[in-house]
Structures are given as structure tokens and as C-alpha cells.
Amino acid sequence: MKFMNIKNSFKALTYAAYAVAVCSAFVNPASAQSVEQLQQLRERAQQSQSGAATPSVSPLSISTQRTLPGATASANTMGQFSTQPRNGVNLPGEPTIDTVFPAQAPMENPPFAANLFIGGFESERSSGLNDNYLIAPGDKISIWLWGAVNFSDVVTVDNQGNIFIPNIGPIRIANTPAGSVNQTVTSKIRQVYTNDVNVYVNLLTSTPVSLYVSGPVLRPGQYAGLASDSVLYYLKRAGGIDFQRGSFRQIDIVRNGKVVASADLYAFFRSGKLPEISFKDGDTILVHPIGNTIVVETGARNSFTFEFLNEELNGGVVNYFARPGEFASHASVSGIRNNKQFARYVSVNEFASLKLSAGDTVEYIADHEPQIYRINVAGAFAGASQVMVDKGARLIDVLDHIEADTTLSDTQNIYLLRESVAVKQKEIIEEGLQRLERSMYTAPISSTGEGAIRAQEAQLVADFITRARQVEPQGRVVVSENGEIANILLEPNDTIVIPEVTDLIHVGGEVLLPQSVVFNPDATTEDYVAWAGGFTERAEDERILIVRKNGNVTFTSVNDSFLSSNDSKLEPGDQIIVLPAIDTKILQAVKDITQIVYQIAIAANVATD
């Protein structure tokens, strides 16, 4: 009986402890225990009653705590607030630039000086104090006196701009440059302590100021910083000037409703000038709407969108800021005058005095008539690889100024590489390829089986066309024949090729072992092909291409009866190209493909499958 009374008393004490814990959690939230701790107390009470550790589910076991995205849930952080910066992370539902700012297409010519707002220089501000910083109320100054009088203290500049030193009185230092604080305070102290007193004064901290950035900036609002910070610092904090709407030329600092300073970012960009001002609480940096704009599209070092004042709308100012290239000779101007289209094409000198209008577009163009050509020299020669010649120069005139060793240079087989010829060869090949495409995809089909065959053949031809379009012609021009050289008119960037004296015959294309073979005056085309391993299965042995050393082209075959003639006789340095045979089962496209293969082989000295 006594044992039962003790047991009942223990149960009553356990329930009382549990009730006290629960009541304490509601009466004193600061000392509230966690959900897990309350659950443990309840389980202990049940264990003492039933004698078994049986888990149970109750509303207390359900967590109702919610965390924001990116936050870390922890039972020990209930009721606490984060003191770390968000580092640009937006809260759910918080407005962003994408939701409140109008969508804008990228500008081909961004504003001049727009790169002032690239990077994070606003976060790299020096923690040191600028000597030009003007003392403001709230700044802390350290003062030491030693000698006949000992005194040390840190004083604060009061709202009246003064500091107070015992036995000295108030000293006004508001708007005093930081570099002059020591001299100002020391001179005041020495008016009282004239002898045997040493003085040291130092500005410890400066008071942050809070000002507003308004106008066409990305994030207008209130920002904090030092009074000595620049206009650029606060503009960058506000996201920079809106390129489409904001002015880089008209930026005012407003204090008590009056403009106390103005900034022109063009002046800073060109000469490093910014207004020298010490900001105060409540100042406003006001960015005005964008003014007159002139777009410089191409031909200048600074191809940007420029903003000019009314008196600056002339070509001379545009030349100053845009800096046209050295070879720019003319300027093209287009715009609107009196609701009518306006266009002018003038020299750069005439453009300097031309009056412009807002919205004009300017292009600088190098429109000099070439009077001097650059001619390249390649192959076996001595001296410079480039020769500058006057307009109208001919090949023989240039060859007279090129040094060549007659024992190593084959001056009888000179040829040219010309860009305009390469372009024309590319056009001819492209025309043939387009004709081939049309013939393949527009061929009539008489049955379903034939259609399937034509589809497979069309895919093969399409692969051939893709490879053929990748070939780049050389633009070779034959200018020598039988030791005589044609005195043709040269074009800009021509390349004069002087072949080397060689004893080799080059064999390539559809042979098993493409290689170079030593020239044998008694050997035939069939011999050289045999020495290169013979024909492949796809070789066309009836029409073999021979590219002469001077660039000329002839055709032969292994059974050619004219090999002994002067036209078909092989010479050292010649190139034998065995072309691929075209499968005659590819409907009517055989002729077109064969023609294209020949054109590519002649234009680029390659055999295309």
C-alpha cells in the first residue's frame, strides 16, 4: 500500500513537471523549449505511466516552421534573424529589374563612356580617409596634449560643427579639410597653452551620409556612403545610367532645392574632371533625360552613340570624340531635316564644319583611290617578300626588281595567284553545283522503286556537293609559256610565284600511294602511275590531269599516242592527278558531276570524290 502511494506521487510529480514546462513555454516565450524537448517530456510521462517506451503521434510532433528559399532550416534557429547580407538574392515576390523595367534590345552602338559602369569598383572603395574630405557633424577626432598639460580624448563634432576641449572651449572645424584638422586645432590650443605643450590631432572616423539618386538610373533610391565619395560611386550603386533614357552630360547635385554642383561624365572620360564636393545628408544626385544624340556607326575608333549639347552639334565635335581612323577620307551623314530625308557625303575636312541635327547617323569611310599596290612574291627568290608598285604597273616591270638565283629559280615557269580569279573560279563551281542540285531534285520519277533509288542517289550527290563547296580555288593565272612571259597588268595583292628548280614529278589523286617520283625523261604517264602504286578501283584512267609547272593544264591517258609530242611530254615539276571515275548509274547527273570534278581539279589542284 505504501509502495502504491509512492508510485502515484511520482506520477503526479512527472505530470506536474510536464505541465510546468508547457506553461513556461507559453508564459515566457524567451525561455520556451523546442518541440523535440516537449515531446521528450511527454514520452517520459507516458513511460512512467505504462512502463513501456511506446511512441505516439501528437500535434506537437508536426513542425510548422517555414523557411525561405536558400535558407537553412535548423531547430536551434527558431526566432532568430539573419544578420548576413543577401548578396543580391531576391526574396519571393520581391520586384526585380526584369519585372519592372521595360525590355530593351541590345544597342549596336552603346553610349560613349558607358563602360564607366562596368565592374565592381564601388565595392573597392579605400577605407582610408581622403585629405580633401570635409569634416562633418558626427566625425570623431583624437586629441593628445602632453608636456606641461596632459590630456587625451576622442571628441565628436557636434551638430554646430564644433569640438569641445576642456580649458580651451569650442573649436569650429566643420567643412575643414581632413588634411588641415591638425593645423586648425593646434593653432587654437596654442592660443591658450603657448609654451611646453605638444599637440597631436588625428581624424579617426568619418560619418556616413545618406543621399538620394534620382532620374533615369536603373535603381533610383537612397544610398549611404562617405561624404568624400564621388558621383560615380553613387551612380554605380544605383545601377548606372539608363542607356536609352539617361544623360551622361547633365548630372546635378541638389542640396536644399538648389543645384550646388554639376557633373559631365564626358569631361571625366576625356580629361578626368569631376565636381569637387563633399556630400551631406539629404543631397540628391539628379540625372537628367538624355539630350541630342549622334550615332557613329563605323570607321572610327569610338563608334558609339554620342550625346551633345545644342552648341556642339557639328562635325568638328564629332571628330573630336569619335576619332576617325587614319585612312578615313569621307564622312556619310544621314538624318531628317524638316520632315524630309537628309543625306550628305563629304570629305572629313568638310564634315568638320557641317551642322548636324539630333538623330543623325555618321559613317567614316576610307574612300581613297588606290595609287600604290602591294604585290606579294613567293617561291624561290631572294630579297623582300612584298613589293609596293604604282597603279598601272606590269609584271615585267616588277620582275626586274626581284632577285632570283638562276640555278635554283625556274624563271621560265612563273605564274600568278590572283584573288579576283579565285573568286570567279568559286562562282563558276558554285553555279555548277547549283545546276547539279536542280537536276537531282527535279528529275522525273516513273515508279515507286525508281523513287527510292533516286532518293539514295540524291543523298550521295548531296554529300559530294557539300565537300565540293569546301574547296578553295587558288586563282592561278598562266603567264609564261615556252620561256616567254606575258607582260600583264598587275592587280592589288597579286602573288608572283617563282617555282623552284626540281627533279621530281608529283603523282596524286586516285592512286594507291600518292608520292613524288624522280623525273625520268624516258618514263611515261603509265610508268609514274605504276610507281605510285597503280590506280585505285575508282580511278578514271582515260582522262588523267597533268598540271604543268607554269600552271597550264592538259589531259592525257595511259594509252595516249601523243605522249611523245611537245604538248603531252612530261617535264620536271609537273603534277599528275588521277581523277575519280563517276558511276554512270547515277541517272543524268554524270555529265554535271564530271564537269564539276574537272573544274575543281583545275582551280585547286585537288581531286574530289
TrEMBL record:
InterPro entries assigned to the protein according to its UniProt record, in alphabetical order: Poly_export, Poly_export_N, Soluble_ligand-bd
Start and end residues of each stretch annotated as Disordered: 42-89
Protein name: Sugar transporter
Ranges of Polar residues composition bias in the record: 51-87
Soluble ligand binding domain: residues covered: 505-553
UniProt GO molecular function: polysaccharide transmembrane transporter activity
Domain of life: Bacteria
